[in-house]
Each structure stands twice: as structure tokens, then as C-alpha cells.
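Checklist before submission:
- one chain only
- standard amino acids only
- sequence pasted in full

Submission:
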Amino acid sequence: MPMRKCLCFVVLLLALASCQKGHMVTVTVHGSGSVSPLQVADVPTGESCTFTITPEPGNSLHTIKANARFDHSVTLTNTATTYLLPNITSDIALDVAFVASPYVKLTVEPSDTILPYGNTCMVTWETANVNPVYLNGEKVKYLSGANTYRLFANMKYTLTGHFGDYTFNDEQEVQVGDWTTSTFGLVSYYPWRYDSLGRSSLDGKILNRWEVGPELLSVITNFHRDGRYINSDYPTVVVQWSVPDSNTIVINGSTNKLQVNQEQMIISYQDSYNGQPVWAEMIYKHASDTPTDPI
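Returned file contents:
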């Protein structure tokens, strides 16, 4: 090859070498979110690139892979963040994956301090993209739901859900007042015995009262806190009772009117007398000052 042509070829090679491009970084997005920029060209060897990663609302950045290798420093986040890809020495395929944001949410109603009970509170849980889920350490069958709890003392509820290596918790604490002064407590705190029977008009006027015989006077009735209703004359027969509101008591499925204070209880049901509708009343007094159930 003539010297002139040889020199031209060398100059061409040097020119091509001086124009050789750097490395390429290409981003592929999986799920609901965005990455900027999606491609960077001509990155000199050893240089770095910075990317802005933004999950869509309700989503989180989950993982980043560079050439199919996970970056284990990436953590689950639902806010916009920057990502530094350092020391680039080759072309890189960057995979950025978003997922629906995992969460657990616990709601207790009434919140703060509930009415003294035996009253109930409703515990509702809601989750997304977590499994398994535990309520106070017990695995729940459904990932969203609700339970009703009777409370006699302060109670803390903890909801725990898992997403891979991540754990999500939510806690709610219920303060419970003195249940013995509630309608439930006035019924259940002490045992009862008959004082008398009576009738009242539907507007509350007392029509008559009469004493009961020795047999009824000897019967002691216990309204246990766990919902058991037991009479001393049939101690093996257990039925259920509840007070859905301060004016109502349900015994063995029968709904009755309730009036109760620290000393007396009147349980009434509708009847007829002389062709007129009346309240037939069972009037009780305390059988003792020893609590029905240990506190």
C-alpha cells in the first residue's frame, strides 16, 4: 500500500476512535409509575447517571434491577425519589418495578373511650397487597373485615400485615370506663331476686303492684358478664341475655323493656288487662351485695 494511502487509513481509524460513543442506559418500567430519563446515551466509562422515579398515587417503587441484578439498597417507597447509577462501565438495562402500595388500616368505633360495659366496640380492618394478616397475633381469614368485641377493660388492638420482607403495623387502643355504672353493669354486677309484680299503662302510669309468694322470692337470678342468664331454681338451664340499648333487655331471644338503677330493676313485656294493652312488670331487688362475677 502506498505510504499516502496508509497514512489516510490510520487517520480514519483515529477519527473513528475519537468519535466512538460511550455507554447506553435504557430503562424499562414495570407497573404504575414513571422514570426520567428513560434513556441515556454516550455515558463515558466510570461516569454516573441520576434518575427521577415517581410512583403513581397508590403505588410504590418496589425493585430496581441493573442488567438483571437486583439493587438490594432499594427500599419500598410511595414518594418520588432519585436513583444514582454509579460507575458505568458497560451498556445497562435498568428495570424499575412498581407495585400497588401495601398497607394495613385499623379502625375502632367508638374511638377513644367507649361507654362502660359490657359495651361493645367494632374493630374494622382494611389491607392492600399484604398477606398474611394478623389481628392481635391471630391470623385473620379475610384481608378486610370487622369484628365486635365486648370489653371490660382497656384494650390495644394491633393489625400486622406482611409484604415480602416488609412488615406493616397499625395500632388502636380503646379506653373503657367503669362498666359497673353502665346499663349492662347495673344489670349484671349483683344478683337479683323478685321484689314484686305489677302492671303499668303504656304511658308509664302504675296501675297495680302485688307481692310474690315464697317460692318466687327464693329464686336468685344471675346475669353473668359473659351473657349467661341463670336462675337458682334451674341452675343447669343456661340461656343468653344482652342489653342492645339502655331501655331494652333480650333474654333467651325475647325482647323486653328495661328500667334499672343501683337498687331496682323492672323487666316489662306487653300484655293486656281488662281489654287494654299494659306493661306486665317483673320487679327485682338485689339478692346480695356480693358481685355476680369476680372483677
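Reviewer check: The chain is about 10% helix and 55% strand.
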